[in-house]
Design brief:
By secondary structure, the protein is α/β, with parallel strands linked by helices. It is built from 14 helices and 20 strands. The chain is globular and about 60 Å long.
Length: 448
Amino acid sequence: MCFIIKISEVDAVCDSYDILIIGAGPAGLSFARSLADLPLKVAILERSSKSTLENPPEDGREIALTHQSVEIMKACGAWQRVPDEDISPIEGAKVFDGNSSYSLNFDNESQTLDALGYLVPNHQIRKAYYEELCAHPQIEILTETLVEEIYTDNRSGRVILNNGKEMSASLIVAADTRFSEMRRKMGLSASMKDFSRSAIVCRMEHTQPHQQTAFECFHYGRTTAILPMNDNRSSIVVTVNSRDAQRFADMSETEFNRNIEDQLDGLLGEMNLLGQRHIYPLVAVHANEFVGRRFALIGDAAVGMHPVTAHGFNLGLKGQATLAKQLTHAIAEGEDIADDNLLKAYEAEQMKTTRVLYHGTNLVVGLFTNETVAAKLARKATLRLANNIAPVKQLITQSLTEKASDNTNPLSEIQKYLPPLPKTAPLHHKVEALIPDKIKPMNIFGLK
């Protein structure tokens, strides 16, 4: 039997589906591809145009992919569609604090890996997944489609579109950004952290090689990150207070080039801007629940991370794969794909990973953007501790790569470096010692 993929307007589509995915960003597209080999009727509802999905505009964002993310992309064929020239290995990383030359260093030598991770433009990831979906007729993509209302009950979920049309599905999955309107309409609350900072992202060319090394420079008042692209090019991310962001975007190219050179103290030689500068306000979001009745969140709608630890897209890719795995098991067992227990199992597994990384990342950001004397001392101490305690460094490296070098557990090794717990008497012994003997219950009743 032969199928033909159909990218169409809403009025050409059937009303009933197994799964409706709201949002055709990287999370929504990757989830749809994970479902493409299953006997499911799936539709993606996307507000942007078909031409935008076919050729996503360059948005300045370069995604640092872990090894696990690369394996997920390879398994479905998306990785093979990314042009080789747009895949840049990250072979090392250095973290600096203030004007000090001391750095926290990471490399891949002890990990026996080709690279710590890989840098790929966000728009190329979206394009690769879209092209993959075009080879799978089960997935229907509805462009220029806006969801106005969403409802679910014990039997199905329904959405009402901006043209008044209604669609239904056994399961509705929202992947509509960290400011998810669907999350709000379904009554799922979220914790939000506004850092009052914005990132100015761009590409630059430089005269000195970066040796495929990423640099994170936590200066006082701003942060400058350099992510290595191929050849003598890098993705530059400057983070400043939001009130100053537009000033950096409005600088002349010459002024901006000199500004970055000065901040890097000549580390990469002369710097020259390539293309546009983009501004992104930094707001982190973590949904307090990832699922509702016949409803689930994936991608940034579930967890939107601060970019400093580069976990955002990787968590989204892992989350959609986790949900797809649960659906695969349900189909194999002949169970309801929107069963409460199934959705809760997805939530529990993903929540276990995301909560630690989300709050840990926010803690790091808080520490390394705090300008008090105490915080500056703590920053320097943190870098030195992480550099000199091998298990700590190994744990961070494994978190960055999402690939363990062996079967050892660095968490258990870290315990060797912690001070022993104080040997104190149990609390009830302490309380008992404060009570005079004559009024102790055991003595009053002659039992002692």
